[in-house]
User: What shape does this take?
Amino acid sequence: PIPMKGCVGALDGYLPLIGKPICKNGVNYYFSQHYFHYGLNCQAMCNHKCRFMMFEVVAPGRCPGNMAIEKLDKFLA
Assistant: This one.
């Protein structure tokens, strides 16, 4: 049996941690209130063989996952 039969891919978010940015104007955009750390909002998709189909850095860490997915739609369109 195929575990994800009929599914094109599984999408999930990832927040790689970064050091505090040196730019003064945008430093708060990279701080995640959820993880209490600076980071980048990445979205990745894999297929049924657990192979990456897509990996994008779509937003700074402050951006919530649901908004990042909306931004991802613009990349895929």
